[in-house]
Structures are given as C-alpha cells and as structure tokens.
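The authors assume throughout that readers already know how a fold can be written as discrete tokens. The format is easy to grasp once an entry is in front of the reader. For illustration, here is how one protein appears when written out as sequence plus structure tokens:
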Amino acid sequence: MNKEEQGLVSTITAWADLMYSDNVKKGFHDRPKAVNEAIDQLAGLGFAGLATRLADATKKNRIEMSGLVVSEIAEAIEATRTDAKDDHLPQFDGDIVEAADAIIRLMDYAASHGKARILGEALIAKMRYNRTRPFMHGKKC
C-alpha cells in the first residue's frame, strides 16, 4: 500500500470511529438497563468470560445494521424518484443526504464491530481490483 492509500485508510478509520462515537453518544448502541446490570453482576461474581460473551451477544447485530443501510438506500431511491429536497437539510437533494446516511451507517457498522481500519483497507483493495477489470466489467449496459 502506498502512502496515499495509507492516508486514505487512516482517514476512513478516523471517520468511522467518529461516526460510531457520535452514535454511541446518541444512544444508538445502548443495551437495556437490565442487561447492563446482569453483565456487571456476572463480572462481579467472577464470570468475566460469560459477561464478555453476553455483552458481545447483545450488541447490535450485523444483519440489523445491514438492514439499516438498505433502508437508507431505499430512501435515496425514493428521493430520486420524487426529486425531493431533504426535509432537514433543504440545501441538499434528498438522494445525496440519504447516501450520506448510508455511508454513516456503513462506517458505524464497521467501527462498532472493531473493523473500521479493515473497512478502509478493503475499500483500497476493492478499488485496486476494479482497476484491473475490463471496461464496464464486460457488461453491455
């Protein structure tokens, strides 16, 4: 990986970590209070391994988070279909704001599962691979 690509990976990692941190602060990764208390009690009783497994099992799961990305893409399609401006950011077209939401969700997904840096590395690797593919990947349209 060259210096420019390393810089992109670092930037993507920082953005993903920031988006995850923002979402944590807004409560999007909160567990129910009773679950947090059970985790603390297990750890306090010497069951640290079990407490860790319970904590991991109650994180937002990858399927749920992937579905949230899909919902943002669906909203972008609808905004494109109706040529709508965004309600909260009217200076932008709705499809662009929904695309931004999808990126935020993807980066939150990666960072919440400890894979922010890997997302950046995979993005660089995928871009490199795509450069080796034939024009339009051999498709007609």
